[in-house]
Write a structure and sequence with these properties.
Blueprint lengths: L3 H14 L12 H8 L3 H13 L3 E4 L3 E4 L2 H6 L5 E6 L8 H14 L5 E6 L4 H13 L4 E4 L7 H7 L4 H9 L4 E5 L9 E4 L1 H14 L4 E5 L5 H16 L5 E3 L13 H4 L1 H4 L10 E6 L3 H7 L4 E2 L2 E10 L13 E3 L2 H16 L8 E4 L2 E3 L1 H7 L1
Parallel strand pairs: 3-4, 3-5, 5-6, 6-7, 7-14, 8-9, 8-10, 10-12, 12-13
Antiparallel strand pairs: 1-2, 11-12, 13-15
C-alpha cells in the first residue's frame, strides 16, 4: 500500500493531467494543500518532492511550485549538480566521508557536473531533510553514504533507514548510488566494502602466521560485524578449525570511542581464561590500545597473543593508535566506482545499475616494523 505522501502525489499528478493546474501555473501552497487533504506539511512537502523528482513541478524561490510539462522538464532547468550526503563530513572528524568526497570531487572534475555536499549526522530524519533540500536544488543525481542511526542491524530489523525512500526516488527517475555501508537487498546501484571477504582475510592472515586458535571478538552490535563474522567462520571451517567468538555483555560504548583504552578493560576479562595456547584475536581497532596494555610484548604467560583489527581507517580517532595489522577499507575504489556509476546512469547507461562489493586490503606494514 502506498504511503500518504505517495497517494497525495498521485492525486496532484492526476489534477495536473486533467488540466486543473495548467502548465506554468503554480500549485496551492503547502498549508493550503495540507488543509485541503487533511495532511501534515511534512507529508505535503514529501509529495511535492516526489513530483519534483518526476519533473512534473519545479520549486521557484518565493513563488511556490510551478507546473511543468514533461518535455520542458526533461530538456531545461538543468542544475548540473550531483548531491552527496554523508553521515559526517563538516562537523565530525571522521575520515571515511572525507576520502569519499575527495574521490567524488576528482571523479566529476572533467564532467559538466559539480558536487553539492551535505551531512546527515547519521540520522535518517536528517538524511531525509538533506534529500529534500537537494531535490529543491534540482540535483540530477545523488551519491549517499546511508545513515544507520544506532547501527545497521537495528536499521535492518526495524526498517529505520531510508532505503525505501531511496528506492522510490530511483524508480521515479533520480539516479542514486549508495556507498560503503550496505544492507542486503537494497536493489539499488551501489559500491560497498565487502565485509564478508574482510572477515575471511583477517582469519586467513592469522592462520598463515601459525595460529590454530583464533577468537573473533564481536565488539559491536551491528549488521556489519555479523557479516565480518560470517567471513571469519567460513575461513576457519575451510581450515578444519572451529570458530570461536566472544560477545561481551556490555557492548562498546560508541559515545566514548574517543577514549577507547580504559573502556575495554572489563571486556578483556572474558578473553584471559581462553588463552591456554598461542592465540590470535580478530577485533575492533578500538580494542587495540587495551590489548596492548593487557598483553605486553604480545605474551600471556608462556603463550603468544597477537591481534588483527577490522575496519580501521587512518586518523579515525584523531590520533594514530595503530602499530597492528588491520583491514583497510577500499575507500578510494569505492568513491571512484561510485562516481563512474553516477556518470553512466546520468548518460542513460543502465548497465551501471548494479551492486559491487570490494574486499578490504590487509595492511601489515606498521605491524612488521614494530615487532620484527
Amino acid at each position: 500500500m502506498n504511503s500518504k505522501y505517495q497517494r497525495l502525489a498521485e492525486q496532484i499528478e492526476l489534477a495536473i493531467l486533467r488540466g486543473e493546474y495548467p502548465v506554468d501555473s503554480f500549485l496551492p501552497g503547502e498549508r493550503t494543500l495540507g488543509e485541503r487533504y487533511k495532511l501534515s506539511r511534512v507529508t505535503v512537502r514529501s509529495a511535492l518532492d516526489l513530483l519534483t523528482v518526476k519533473r512534473l513541478i519545479t520549486p521557484i524561490a518565493a513563488r511556490g511550485y510551478k507546473v511543468l510539462c514533461r518535455a520542458e522538464a526533461s530538456s531545461t532547468n538543468r542544475s548540473h549538480l550531483i548531491g552527496a550526503i554523508f553521515p559526517g563530513y563538516k562537523k565530525f572528524d571522521t575520515a571515511v566521508p572525507h576520502y569519499l568526497v575527495g574521490q567524488l570531487t576528482e571523479g566529476v572534475q572533467n564532467s559538466d557536473y559539480s558536487l553539492l555536499i551535505d551531512e546527515s549526522a547519521d540520522l535518517p530524519a536528517t538524511e531525509r531533510e538533506c534529500i529534500q533540500k537537494m531535490i529543491r536544488r534540482n540535483v540530477e543525481a545523488l551519491a549517499i553514504m546511508p545513515a544507520f542511526s544506532g547501527g545497521a542491524l537495528k536499521a535492518s530489523i526495524n526498517n529505520t533507514g531510508n532505503y525505501s525512500l531511496f528506492k522510490e526516488l530511483y524508480d521515479n527517475g533520480l539516479p542514486i548510488v549508495l556507498m560503503d555501508r550496505h544492507l542486503n537487498g537494497t536493489g539499488l546501484p551501489g559500491v560497498y566494502n565487502d565485509d564478508v571477504a574482510g572477515g575471511a582475510l583477517q582469519a586467513e592472515y592469522m592462520l598463515k602466521r601459525g595460529f590454530s586458535q583464533i577468537i573473533y571478538f564481536m565488539a559491536h552490535d551491528n549488521h556489519v560485524d555479523y557479516l565480518r563474522y560470517t567471513g571469519y567462520c567460513n575461513a576457519m571451517r575451510q581450515a578444519g578449525l572451529a570458530p570461536l567468538s566472544i560477545t561481551p555483555s556490555d557492548f562498546c560504548n560508541t559515545s566514548a570511542w574517543n577514549v577507547p583504552c580504559e573502556r575495554h578493560e572489563k571486556e578483556l576479562q572474558v578473553i584471559f581464561p581462553l588463552i591456554n595456547q598461542d592465540t590470535a584475536l580478530v577485533c575492533s581497532c578500538f580494542l587495540a590500545p587495551a590489548l596492548d596494555k593487557a598483553f605486553p610484548n604480545h605474551r600471556y604467560g608462556k603463550h603468544r597473543v597477537e591481534w588483527i583489527c577490522y575496519d580501521y581507517t587512518a586518523d579515525h580517532l584523531g590520533t594514530n593508535i595503530m602499530p597492528y595489522p588491520c583491514a583497510l577499507r577500499p575507500i578510494d575504489k569505492i568513491g571512484r566506482l561510485a562516481t563512474e556509476k553516477l556518470l553512466k546512469l546520468l548518460a542513460g547507461d543502465k548497465s551501471a545499475a548494479t551492486e559491487e562489493f570490494i574486499p578490504p586490503v590487509i595492511d601489515t606494514t606498521a605491524h612488521e616494523t614494530r615487532l620484527w
